[in-house]
Amino acid sequence: MESGNFNRRITIQRIELNPETDDHGEVDLKDEGNWETHVVSWANIKTKGGREWWKSDKINAEVSHIIQVPYGRLTRKIDSEMRIRVGDRTINIVAAYDIDEQRQVIEMQCKEPN
Which pTM value belongs to this model? Predict the structure, then answer.
């Protein structure tokens, strides 16, 4: 995957500081009101099916997308408790990391819910 081809606008969201909870004290992750914007960024999005996926299939069959964003003050804090909005679609973050610890690109392994 070529890093640096950031041609899609995405929104990374996190759970609000004081989210609404149900009767059992659990946060409803499907309630849009419980999410807030962490950062809006340009991204490079790849879906499963390319040649580079053979490694990912062996590591984690749950991954449906690899999404890269430029490294920055807010993007370096992305974690698996967050999610991505691309238009009206929601994509869950499975893992996020700084590629080769170069502080240039944050890569996220993601899964789009069924």
Answer: 0.83
> Containing domain of residue 29, as a range?
8-111
Domains of the chain: total: 1
CATH of the domain at 41: 2.40.10.270
Instruction: List pLDDT tens digits, range 17-74.
Output: 888 888 888 998 888 999 999 999 999 999 875 445 555 455 555 788 999 999 999 9
CA distance to 28, 41, 65, 68, per residue, from 6 (Å): 32, 9, 15, 8
